[in-house]
Amino acid sequence: MIIRSVELRNFISHERTRVHFPLGVTVIVGPNGAGKSSILDAMLFALFRERVRGERLEDLIRRGADTSQVKLTFDEGGVEYVVERTLSRKSKGRGGGEAQFRRLGVGGKPVEGQRAVSEEILKTLGMDKDEILNSVFVRQGEIAAIIEAEPSKRKELFGKLLGLEKLENAYDGMKTVIDHFKSKLETYTAPLAELKSLEERKAQLDNEIKELEQEVKRLAADFKGCEGRFKAAKAALDDEEARRKKYEEIKSELRVLEERAALLHRNTEQLAKELEDAETASRRAEALEPEISKIQTLENLLLAKAAADNLRTKEKALAKELEKVEKLAKELEATKNAYEKFLELQATLEKKEAEKKNLETYLLEEGRLKYEISSLEVRISETEQELSKLEAFAVGVLGEISAEAKGRLIKDLETERVRARDEIFSLERRRGEAIGRIAEIEETLKKIEGANECPVCGRELDDAHKQQLISRLKAEKSSLEALAQAFYDEIGALKAEIKQIDSRIKEVSSVNVEYIEKSRRELERAKKELSAKNNKLIEITPMLKAFENIVNSIDRLKGELEALHGDYQQYIGALKALEAERAEAEVKRELEDVKNKLSEKLFEVKRLESELGYMPEDPEMELRKLRLKKLEYDRFKSIAERIEELKARLEAVRAELRCTTEEHERLNVRLEALGFSEEAYELARQKFEKLRAELENLNIKLRTAKNRKEDKVEERRRLSGRIEELVRLKVETEVMRKFVGDLEKIRWAFSKDGVQRLLREFALPLISEHAGEYLEKFNIGVSGVRIDEDFNIYVMTAVGELPIKSISGGQKVAVGIALRLAIASALVGKVSTVVMDEPTAFLDEERVRELVDAMRSFFMGGGASIPQMILVSHHRELEDVADEVYVVENAGGISKVMPAARRE
Question: Which contiguous run of DSSP H or E holds residue 899?
Answer without folding.
Answer: strand 894-899
